[in-house]
Design a protein that fits this description.
The complex is a heterodimer of chains A (81) and B (576). In chain A, 58% of the residues lie in helices and 0% in strands. The longest helix of chain A has 16 residues. Chain A is globular. By secondary structure, chain A is mainly α. In chain A, helix 1 packs across helix 2 and helix 1 packs across helix 4. With 576 residues, chain B is of the alpha/beta class. In chain B, 41% of the residues lie in helices and 18% in strands. The chains are: A mainly alpha (81), B alpha/beta (576). The interface between A and B is medium-sized, with 16 and 18 residues.
């Protein structure tokens, strides 16, 4: 698995959780770029990602990633693939 | 349990056709996701919860300033959510010498909040009790001292029950029991808590939302009143027709314990006023035999309000049961181990609740309990004898078949009614009737016990409660009227009657009494009003049938020209 593969899977999770078909995630995407992504929906996204990949983020990591790409690098590290 | 993401998506859907309830939510932790879960869950149960949320950790500020937004929001329910996490911090701040009084002090604060809120608002208060948290400071030894957090937390939860017993409009959201079912690892998500001050995990939030909705639905009169039970592999192991009575599993035989304990729970439901009906595909005599003869059966014939065993399809049988018990399909729960039967009932009688039973009978009781199907907002003595009352009704129906003439039948019943004003003995049942009656209810105004007490004490109102009995038994308190004294007329604010006493002439008896009251109080006119709802079509022509004149929106009766109408109900002195 590559980071791009992870970004594609996470894109699907964002579309489902934020209920918006039009979301397209790139490495550089941040919460500022997506209207529905705020501190509350962030909680939903994190939980959905943890369940999907069967991982658990450390509490410091939840707010720590600068963009989608960094978060997906984190996911990749956890899934060890 | 619907997951949080689905509840969030519900927020975009159409709530316009649903009954609404206004909620004010106050918490000492971050409550935004909980508010979303509550509103989203409302969609699942066809309620539109309009939620005003206080700012973060503003409970006392909002409650004790009576000009604050919580009062302006005019809620039907004020929900106060204090978290175990914050409670623990307050406890730890206390010097050791004050810790033994922590619970009492907290309960006094809760009492103060309740008194302040209810003095200014006509609302119910729903207060969360506390999830247990073992801080492992003393280990099990915490149970041997009164200044441990464990001791004080338990004391608060018990104290809340004592408070709620005495305060009619205080309802406890039992988070302690709910958290116990889900387990600390599911209830808490420390990552989320540390980052956002949201106390519950996303997985637990729908359960909390459901618990709140269950309380509100029960208060609104949306209750389950009847459990319809299959027999084979539901109430006992095996198939009675094939295995014979000696081989069905009950008691010590095989996994009989699962069924015996399941029946024990069902019997408790019956004792508290839930009607049990049997609906089984079996020959009737064979189906009855265990109830009559098997030593390990917990349920007996006297526990069953209506026993239907035949080879017809269950949807038809359920319709038959409904017409005898005369309660809504939406107040029935159908319990059957067979998924084919369940699907058929779900398709053909969609308003009935049909739980998808687990495959293992050992899990039946636990599973059904987890659905919390039998929430209630009141309990009166009459609830305990409800099954008996339905059985008496069955005897009346049989007796009726002998008579070709309705009047002869009514006369043969030897009916006697007792009439009394509202008093402290009948207030619970009076209030319960106003909250649960949907069909014979002219204006569907719901009154709490406090409301009834105020009406009883007020000079502006005249009121009566009616009980009825006949030679077959006692119907109990079955009708309530509340009359409001207006300038030149007596207005019928409330006229409710239990559907069990339809076609007995009770309406006439009641009208005779209303006119008598009007004459005594010097009124020449009586005004009635019919406010239509989806459930009270039964009384659309009630006032027309009683001889009232239609006056554009209202119904008018002239007292002077009224002559007592014939009915077969005599009077007797009330016991209370």
């Amino acid at each position: 698995m590559t980071v791009d593969d992870i970004i594609k899977e996470v894109n699907g999770i964002f579309i489902d959780v934020l209920d918006n078909d039009a979301i397209v995630l790139k490495y550089e995407t941040t919460a500022k770029d997506i209207e529905e992504w705020d501190s509350l929906t962030h909680v939903q996204l994190v939980v959905a990602i943890e369940k999907h990949f069967k991982i658990r983020f450390k509490s410091s990591e939840i707010q720590g990633y600068k963009n989608v790409g960094e978060m997906c690098e984190g996911i990749l590290a956890y899934t060890g693939k | 349990m619907t997951d949080f993401n689905q509840l969030k998506k519900n927020l975009k859907k159409d709530f316009s056709k649903f009954k609404s309830a206004r909620i004010a939510l106050l918490g000492d932790s971050a409550t935004q996701l909980l508010a979303q879960a509550i509103r989203g869950y409302g969609y699942e149960v066809e309620m539109s919860f309009e939620i005003w949320e206080a700012d973060y950790d503003q409970i006392e500020m909002q409650v004790f300033d009576t000009s604050s937004e919580v009062y302006a929001s005019k809620p039907d329910y004020v929900i106060i959510f204090q978290s175990t996490q914050k409670l623990m911090k307050y406890f730890y701040k206390l010097p050791a010498s004050e810790r033994a009084g922590f619970a009492d002090a907290h309960l006094e604060k809760v009492r103060g909040m309740y008194d302040t809120v209810t003095s200014k608002l006509k609302c119910r208060v729903i207060y969360f009790n506390f999830a247990m948290m073992d801080d492992a400071v003393f280990g099990n030894f915490a149970n041997k001292i009164d200044f441990s957090f464990t001791y004080q937390l338990r004391k608060i939860n018990l104290g809340l029950m004592d408070l709620a017993r005495g305060l009619k409009n205080l309802f406890i959201n039992d988070i302690e029991s709910l958290a116990c079912r889900y387990g600390t690892d599911t209830v808490n998500d420390m990552s989320i808590y540390v980052n956002t001050d949201i106390v519950f995990s996303l997985d637990f939030m729908p359960a909390v939302a459901k618990n709140i909705a269950d309380i509100i639905l029960a208060i609104s009169g949306k209750l389950k009143k009847c459990a319809i039970l299959d027999l084979d592999n539901t109430l006992w192991g095996g198939i009675i027709g094939d295995d014979g009575m000696e081989n069905i599993q009950l008691g010590d035989l095989g996994i009989g314990k699962a069924f015996t304990e399941f029946q024990l729970w069902l019997k408790e439901l019956k004792k508290r006023g839930i009607l049990l009906a049997v609906c089984s595909k079996n020959t009737e005599e064979i189906a009855r035999e265990p109830f009559e003869k098997h030593p390990d059966m917990v349920l007996r014939m006297e526990d069953i309000s209506i026993f239907v065993a035949n080879w017809d399809n269950k949807a038809d049988n359920i319709r038959r049961i409904q017409s005898v018990l005369n309660i809504g399909f939406d107040s029935m729960v159908f319990i059957d181990d067979n998924p084919v039967e369940r699907e058929m009932v779900k398709t053909h009688v969609p308003d009935v609740t049909v739980p998808d039973m687990p495959e293992d009978p050992a899990e039946y009781a636990g599973f059904l309990r987890s659905l919390n199907l039998f929430e209630t907002a009141s309990f009166s003595e009459e609830d305990e004898s409800r099954t008996e009352q339905y059985q008496q009704e069955a005897k009346r129906k049989i007796a009726q078949e002998v008579y070709t003439n309705e009047d002869d039948f009514l006369a043969s019943l030897n009916m006697k009614a007792a009439v009394s004003p509202f008093n402290k003995f009948n207030t619970p049942r009076v209030s319960q009737l106003t909250q649960r009656s949907n069909q014979f209810n002219l204006r569907t105004v719901r009154y709490t016990e406090d409301d009834i007490a105020k009406i009883a004490a007020s000079a502006e109102y005249l009121n009566r409660a009616f009980s009825l009995k006949d030679k077959f038994g006692d119907y109990g308190l079955i009708s309530v009227i509340i009359l409001h004294k207006r300038e030149d007329a007596l207005f019928i604010d409330t006229w409710i009657m239990s559907c069990r006493v339809l076609k007995r002439g009770m309406e006439i008896f009641t009208l005779n009494e209303i006119v008598r009251i009007a004459r005594e109080a010097g009124f020449k006119k009586i005004i009635g009003e019919y406010l239509p709802t989806p459930k009270n079509g039964l009384v659309k022509n009630h006032y027309a049938d009683l001889g009232f004149q239609s006056t554009g929106g209202h119904w008018l009766l002239d007292v002077d020209s009224y002559a007592d109408r014939v009915n077969f109900i005599g009077t007797e002195e009330p016991v209370n």
